[in-house]
Design a protein that fits this description.
single chain, alpha+beta, 9 strands
Length: 165
């Protein structure tokens, strides 16, 4: 059984956006220019009711149901972007789902909310005869699953998976 990440994300229509308090959960090392051309459709939006900014944002939802925003700190500068999540859904699992869905590794975050407590995971490979080998150890589930998915997409016959250690 090969591993391929099933978590994805999509834009969220305004009528589907949850009400509630959004809080910053991470600051990305990536700047606005690195993010917008690749994956996100940022739009100018007034978010004063949600957060204290008026910068472009991407309102998104993981396929597992967690809504989040990626907000540019300053789109015209080499500034980082931030990930915001509903305070009521701020869990390590939810945050790892966000990272995995958008393809960000935890190392791409300059700062992560203190409520997020990662559990180390490892990637294991199984070859055709059934021998298993440790590929690597990672600080969190999202990092390990992203790496397992990257190896699987290379098209080798081996099976890769992530598991806690």
């Amino acid at each position: 059984m090969s591993y391929d990440s099933t978590l994805t994300f999509c834009q969220v229509a305004p009528q589907q956006w949850h009400d509630g308090k959004f809080i910053a959960v991470a600051t990305l090392a990536n700047n606005w220019q690195d993010l917008s051309p690749n994956k996100f459709d940022f739009e100018k939006a007034t978010l004063a009711a949600l957060i204290s900014t008026n910068e472009p944002d991407a309102r998104l939802q993981t396929s597992s149901g967690f809504q989040f925003m990626i907000v540019s700190a300053c789109p015209n500068a080499q500034a980082a972007a931030q990930i915001f999540m509903l305070e009521s859904s701020l869990t390590t699992q939810a945050f790892e789902d966000v990272l995995e869905a958008v393809g960000f590794y935890s190392a791409q975050c300059n700062w992560i909310h203190s409520q997020i407590k990662f559990e180390p995971h490892q990637v294991v490979r199984q070859d055709d005869p059934g021998n298993q080998f440790l590929v690597g150890q990672f600080p969190c589930r999202a990092d390990a699953r992203l790496m397992a998915s990257a190896f699987t997409k290379r098209g080798h016959k081996q099976t890769y998976w992530a598991e806690p250690f």
